[in-house]
Give the backbone structure.
Amino acid sequence: MVEMALVLPLLVVLLVGLVEFSRVLMVKQVITNAAREGARAGAIKLDDSGALSTALNVSQNYISSSGLDSSTAVIDPSFQVVEGSAAIRVSVGYDYESMLTHFIPGIPDTVSLRANAIMRRES
């Protein structure tokens, strides 16, 4: 009984940390894919004004359909020149707020995640 009382809190903290770390990795993968999908959609759009809005909308829809709150995501599509070719860059920023680690000292409640994708324009 005494051994269980000593070991159980450590196991619970370890399990909570494992769940939170896995969740952070999942959110990072979602925003990385949102940036890629947005950049791809903007790259195949022929007109410049439609490319940026398409990239923004596709990225927002990807984040929403993944179960994250797209209103807290900062999505910034822009044009770039890569090795002499026109390209579109989509940057996605997301502040992940932990739901389980508020009671553990030393672990931040918010983690800022960023993802970028650059794709050459096809027009």
User: Anything to note?
Assistant: The chain has one domain: 2-120. The beta strands are 74-82, 85-97, 110-120.
